[in-house]
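Form 7-S
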Amino acid sequence: MLKVGLTGGLASGKSFIAQVFRDCGAKVIEADRLGHETLLRDGEAYADVIAEFGDGILLPDGQINRKALGAIVFADPQKLERLNALVHPHVFRRQQRFFEQAEAEDPAAVAVVEAAILIETGGRERYDRIVLAYCPEDVQIARFMARDGGTEQQARERMARQMPLAEKVPYADYLIDTSDSKADTEKRARAVYAKLREEAAS
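Output:
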């Protein structure tokens, strides 16, 4: 089995690539989804996050209001770091279970974790290969504005909280240029997947 980390930045096209990989037969999971699951009432991080950030982040039904929590942590890098410290260990354990299940189902599987801050969290060593979705900053901003209806300033603020894509390039085993059409990106992604499949099978 080949453990693959798929990463990128804001509106860089990594979710599109994840879907192409899935269509090609890869087993794919989103780290964001795993993180959200740890914050549910029966999630591993639920109690610790409330203890750290207070009851003010709770909805009337007792669930964590992720939007309220996000507003707190994205305004304060230290609080974001604290939240990550509470959530990420559980996410990594869930990822490991995903890899174990994927290998049990298919010893030659290509198992992909899609994660925006994969490199920033020191996760590089957890994967056999890193795939990076890459496009210029102006393309990221234009896509974000079209997709989310946000402003250029909001896009730049979000990007400032992430490692620039150019700095992620040296960590990548495979680089997929997403700056052209979706058809072009899909073609490149399928070519990369074919190589990953060969590696997984050998």
